[in-house]
Amino acid sequence: MHDLLDTKAAAPRIGVSPGTLENWRVAGRGPKFIKSPGRRGKVLYDPADIEAWKEANRFQSTSEAEAA
User: In terms of pTM, does the model score above 0.70?
Assistant: First the structure.
């Protein structure tokens, strides 16, 4: 298993700010994440999940992206 990344480390791998990644997490738009138990649990990302999300969001054209 890869070392897990916090939001601050994961965001640049996607090309967005940590705040955008947090907003996407709330909206269910970004990559899968792991949350440790508890109300104030840490949110962590597996680099493999980031790469899978990037691959799933790769398109040939804007029309292909709009259809997705």
Answer: yes
Q: Which of 41, 12, 44, 40 is nearest to 25 (CA)?
A: 44
Element (H, E) at 25: helix 18-27
Query: pLDDT tens for residues 16-66?
Result: 999 999 999 999 999 999 998 988 899 999 999 999 999 999 998 988 888
3.30.70, 3.30.2310, 3.30.300, 1.10.1660: which CATH number matches 5-67? 1.10.1660
Q: What span, in angstroms and rounded, lies between the C-alpha atoms of 47 and 33?
A: 10
User: What's CA 27's distance to the chain center, in Å?
Assistant: 11
